[in-house]
Amino acid sequence: MAQETPAGLDLNKIQEILYNGWLAFRLFWDGRVPLLLKVVPLVGFIYLVSPVDLSSIPCIGIFTLGILDDVAVIHFLNILLFIPLSPPHVVGEHQRKLDVKFARLLGQLGIEVKSLKKAEKDGG
């Protein structure tokens, strides 16, 4: 199922991962987000560059997927902790700005961007 952004962009899963990563990056550098909360994406980044790969430990029972499992860890840390716990007004402000930039970027790459809110206004 696709994620809809506040401006109504309908994103597939890969686009959603990129969007949320970009959003987390913007929130990380925003001074209005509490410093203690910024530890969450920092832990994810350290895990990404660390030579230790927890999913390769046999007792966990997960097959090693290389960089994919690292990206998944960072994605879920951002989705489940960092973005939801950040101040809502700050997240909303960054989402509105990011929606415009992200739609423009996808358009430049030749990727069709569906706007669900525009389709609703047009009656379709």
Please characterize this protein's 3D structure.
The protein is built from five helices and three strands; from the N terminus they run E-E-H-H-H-H-E-H. Helix 1 (13-28) packs across helix 3. 15% of the residues are buried. Strands 1-2-3 form a three-stranded antiparallel beta sheet. It has one domain. The model is unreliable at 116-124 (pLDDT under 50). The longest helix has 21 residues, at 88-108. It has helices spanning 13-28, 39-49, 67-85, 88-108, 116-121, and strands at 3-4, 9-11, 114-115. The chain is flat. With 124 residues, it is mostly helical. It is 59% helix and 6% strand.
Q: Brief overview, please?
A:
The chain is built from five helices and three strands. The protein has 124 residues and is mainly α. Helix 1 crosses helix 3, helix 1 packs across helix 4 and helix 2 packs antiparallel against helix 3.
